[in-house]
Amino acid sequence: MSPGGTLPFGIRTERLVLDQPLPGDVDDIARYCVDPLFEEYLSIPWPYRREHAVGFVAEFVPKGWLRGEEWTWAIRESAGGPLLGVIGVRMPSGMVGFWLGAPHRGRGILPEALSAVIDEVFARTDLERMRWECVVGNAPSMRVAAKAGFRYTGEQDGMIRARDGAVTRAWTAELLRGADRTEQPGWPSAE
């Protein structure tokens, strides 16, 4: 099965519901995305404003699904509950990306959500590998990828450009279909 245009689908885990970002999530997205860590490590618009969140929910997410270019989910603790963060995967590269609002960090939410997304991508597509990268120094993102079983592949020029279009130095990793999903050795020091 190929990624192609796909109707949005939800995912449930033991503690989480991954579903579509909704207009009611705009204020939470706008509030979370002004985090100074987002300015440093993400390629989202900066300064981030409410209209960016509106465009993300109304345009970016639905078009990504329709075109089969990006599958994006809101992360929640219950159906209809408040948005905790966002996770997505770019097609056909299999590149994952995620963020969590500051009040929700440190509870194992992102590794659980990422593992569920990996399961669905491998079940619903013919992708043989998923990819992850972050700007060098983004230790929290690195820890999430490591916990989900990604294998560190080195520091190199990133595939994801900075918001100004510049090439970034990135830590990179991959997860092959059928690979051992336990934490792999070889990651950079997180200090």
UniProtKB/TrEMBL annotation:
Annotated PANTHER family: GNAT FAMILY, PUTATIVE (AFU_ORTHOLOGUE AFUA_3G00765)-RELATED-RELATED (PTHR43792)
InterPro entries per UniProt: Acyl_CoA_acyltransferase, GNAT_dom, N-acetyltransferase
Name this polypeptide is given: GNAT family N-acetyltransferase
Regions annotated as coiled coil: none
Domain spans labelled N-acetyltransferase: 32-174
